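[Q] Does anyone have a clean C-alpha coordinate version of this?
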Amino acid sequence: MNFIFSKHALEQMELRNISRSVVEEIMENPEQIKIEEDNKVYQAVVEKGRFLIRIFVNDKKTPKTVITVYKTSKINKYL
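[A] Here you go.
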Protein backbone atom coordinates (compact mmCIF):
# COMPACT_ATOMS: atom_id res chain seq x y z
CA MET A 1 0.00 0.00 0.00
CA ASN A 2 1.27 3.44 -0.87
CA PHE A 3 0.86 6.03 1.90
CA ILE A 4 2.69 8.83 3.69
CA PHE A 5 2.63 10.12 7.27
CA SER A 6 1.59 13.66 8.17
CA LYS A 7 3.84 15.56 10.54
CA HIS A 8 1.08 15.33 13.17
CA ALA A 9 0.84 11.54 12.80
CA LEU A 10 4.60 11.14 13.27
CA GLU A 11 4.52 13.36 16.36
CA GLN A 12 1.62 11.40 17.85
CA MET A 13 3.31 8.06 17.13
CA GLU A 14 6.41 9.23 18.99
CA LEU A 15 4.42 10.70 21.87
CA ARG A 16 2.32 7.53 22.23
CA ASN A 17 5.20 5.12 21.68
CA ILE A 18 3.68 3.50 18.57
CA SER A 19 6.30 2.28 16.12
CA ARG A 20 6.22 2.94 12.41
CA SER A 21 6.48 -0.81 11.76
CA VAL A 22 3.32 -1.50 13.80
CA VAL A 23 1.42 1.17 11.88
CA GLU A 24 2.64 -0.17 8.53
CA GLU A 25 1.62 -3.72 9.50
CA ILE A 26 -1.88 -2.59 10.47
CA MET A 27 -2.19 -0.56 7.27
CA GLU A 28 -1.27 -3.66 5.24
CA ASN A 29 -3.38 -6.11 7.30
CA PRO A 30 -6.08 -4.30 9.29
CA GLU A 31 -8.50 -6.29 11.42
CA GLN A 32 -11.16 -3.73 10.55
CA ILE A 33 -11.62 -0.61 8.44
CA LYS A 34 -14.27 1.92 9.42
CA ILE A 35 -15.37 5.25 7.94
CA GLU A 36 -15.45 8.21 10.33
CA GLU A 37 -15.93 11.80 9.17
CA ASP A 38 -14.83 11.06 5.58
CA ASN A 39 -11.65 9.31 6.74
CA LYS A 40 -10.88 5.62 6.81
CA VAL A 41 -9.86 4.24 10.18
CA TYR A 42 -7.62 1.19 10.01
CA GLN A 43 -7.54 -0.66 13.30
CA ALA A 44 -6.22 -3.78 14.98
CA VAL A 45 -5.89 -5.21 18.49
CA VAL A 46 -2.27 -5.38 19.72
CA GLU A 47 -0.20 -6.25 22.77
CA LYS A 48 -1.97 -9.55 23.51
CA GLY A 49 -5.43 -8.02 23.30
CA ARG A 50 -4.70 -5.13 25.67
CA PHE A 51 -4.98 -2.24 23.21
CA LEU A 52 -6.58 -1.20 19.95
CA ILE A 53 -4.52 0.93 17.58
CA ARG A 54 -6.57 3.26 15.40
CA ILE A 55 -5.03 4.88 12.31
CA PHE A 56 -6.94 7.71 10.65
CA VAL A 57 -6.23 7.98 6.92
CA ASN A 58 -7.25 10.50 4.28
CA ASP A 59 -7.60 8.22 1.26
CA LYS A 60 -8.80 11.00 -1.02
CA LYS A 61 -5.21 12.23 -1.34
CA THR A 62 -2.60 10.54 -3.49
CA PRO A 63 -0.71 8.96 -1.89
CA LYS A 64 -2.99 8.20 1.05
CA THR A 65 -2.06 10.24 4.13
CA VAL A 66 -1.99 8.98 7.70
CA ILE A 67 -3.53 11.86 9.67
CA THR A 68 -3.17 10.58 13.23
CA VAL A 69 -2.60 7.41 15.23
CA TYR A 70 -3.58 6.47 18.75
CA LYS A 71 -3.82 3.53 21.10
CA THR A 72 -6.83 2.85 23.35
CA SER A 73 -7.81 0.24 25.91
CA LYS A 74 -11.52 0.79 25.08
CA ILE A 75 -11.51 -1.98 22.50
CA ASN A 76 -15.23 -2.81 22.63
CA LYS A 77 -16.17 0.83 22.08
CA TYR A 78 -14.57 0.88 18.61
CA LEU A 79 -14.84 -2.68 17.28
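[Q] Thanks! Anything notable?
[A] The chain has one domain: 3-78.
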